Amino acid sequence: MLLETAQESDFIAQDSAAFYDGIAPDYDVMTNFQKRFVQEKPFFNLMVQKYGITTALDAGAGTGFHSLLLAQLGVKVTSADISPEMLKRVKAHSREMNLDLKAVRSDFRNLQEEIPGTFDAVISMGNSLAHVLSREELRTVFQNFMLKLNAGGILFLQLLNYEKILARRETIQSAKEMNGITFVRYYEFCDPLLKFNILRLEKRNGTVEHTLHTTLLRPIVKDEIISSLADVGFVKIKTAGSISMDEFQPMKSKDLVVLAKKE
Question: What whole-number distance in Å separates Cα of residue 57 and Cα of residue 262?
Fold first, then answer.
């Protein structure tokens, strides 16, 4: 699928915003918001120290988990997301945790226009890149990330390992019950794209109420990420299977993590 017009690209952006607005009230529960601070802080602390990160842009911030984690480590953070409802929760969390960060509504295409200045690091976590639905637009997104980095700055990406998902045609991604609510994440394969669904089931008054949220994703794999990053000038590109930077194994790793540097 090629994004041939600005209007088509805008429509897809609006679809993504509506999807995340819809799941925003449940997002922290679905992603184990509180527990992840203990799990992920050691790695990010190591990254901040190793690369001397004092400023960071969190592109596709969601409810702000990684923004808040970096702010706890003394980094000055700007959180960018396409969803107004997600950004409301970023701001609420920052107030509750007494952390100072800036929250801006922007999609990947508009970072240069919406967010002034450059940063020591740009991060994009939580499979946000899968919303980029063409190779051409992925290259543009990486160019925008490059423009937001200081010389010598780092780019840190995390998305699902789609090589494994495509090879196994894994439909059900997860089914979790939390606080009496079950969340089922599943794919419909619409080659070359995926339809990503989150089904919310809640028992209430003897019946099961359900809500379905759906959006399109593109299963971007390692080779395309590496080649696209190199095309726009990123260097020292490294891949891993998790944020702990263990070896990426195409048929075993849950995630694809990529670290790259701006010369």
Answer: 15
Over residues 248-261, the mean pLDDT reads: 98
- Which residues are CB-neighbours of 54 under 8 A, at least 6 positions away? 74, 75, 76, 120
Under DSSP, the state recorded for 110 is G
Beta-sheet strands, E only, within the chain: 55-59, 76-81, 102-105, 119-124, 149-160, 172-178, 181-190, 193-204, 207-217, 234-240, 255-262
Domain that residue 117 falls in = 6-160+221-262
Question: Is residue 196 predicted with pLDDT exceeding 50?
Answer: yes
Q: Do 155 and 170 sit in the same domain of this protein? A: no
Residues 57 and 185 in one domain: no
Q: Are 146 and 262 in contact (CB under 8 A)?
A: yes
Q: By percentage, how much of the chain surpasses pLDDT 90? A: 89
Amino acid at position 26, single letter? D
Q: Is the pTM of this model over 0.90?
A: yes
The answer to whether residue 44 sits within a structural domain is yes
The whole-angstrom separation of Cα 122 and Cα 153 is 8
Q: Are 194 and 210 contained in the same domain? A: yes
pLDDT tier at 223, thresholds 50, 70, 90: very high
Whether the pLDDT of residue 199 is over 90: the answer is yes
Q: Helix crossing, 222-231 with 135-147: angle to 10°?
A: 50
- Here the tokens at position 79 are 């959180």
In a shared domain, residues 169 and 156: no
Domain-located, residue 211:
yes
